[in-house]
TrEMBL record:
Organism of origin: Methanolobus zinderi
Lineage: Archaea, Methanobacteriati, Methanobacteriota, Stenosarchaea group, Methanomicrobia
InterPro entries associated with the record: MazG-like_dom (IPR004518)
Protein name from the UniProt record: Nucleotide pyrophosphohydrolase
UniProt cross-references to PANTHER family, sorted A to Z: NUCLEOTIDE PYROPHOSPHOHYDROLASE (PTHR42702), REGULATORY PROTEIN FOR BETA-LACTAMASE (PTHR42702:SF1)
Superkingdom to which the source organism belongs: Archaea
GO molecular function: hydrolase activity
Pfam families recorded: MazG
The keyword Cell membrane belongs to this UniProt entry's keyword annotation: no
Length: 95
């Protein structure tokens, strides 16, 4: 699945809920999912980590849709096949 297809799927499934909820509440859902991911990582629960990563990705898609942002274009602009900080591939940054 391409990123654009993922984003369209999230829109088809949830845009009506996301628009009703609004960006601030949608962001809070993302933060909650990040917390659940942190807990799964703390427990080293691989299956739950997998599930929570998918949830986080879905909520990022929801926010992008609310702001009419093409995630693939934004990602490629920020990460054009090299590190945005040092400009190298692979990254040679120390932090």
């Amino acid at each position: 699945m391409e990123i654009a297809e993922f984003q369209q799927l999230m829109s088809d499934l949830y845009a009506h809920n996301d628009k009703r909820r609004g960006p601030s509440a949608t962001m809070l859902w993302l933060v909650e999912e990040v917390g659940e991911l942190a807990e799964a990582i703390r427990r080293d629960d691989s299956e739950n980590i997998r599930e929570e990563l998918a949830d986080c990705f879905a909520w990022v898609g929801a926010l992008a849709n609310l702001y009419d942002i093409d995630l693939e274009a934004a990602f490629l602009e920020k990460y054009p096949d090299k590190c945005p900080s040092c400009g190298k591939k692979p990254c040679i940054c120390t932090d």
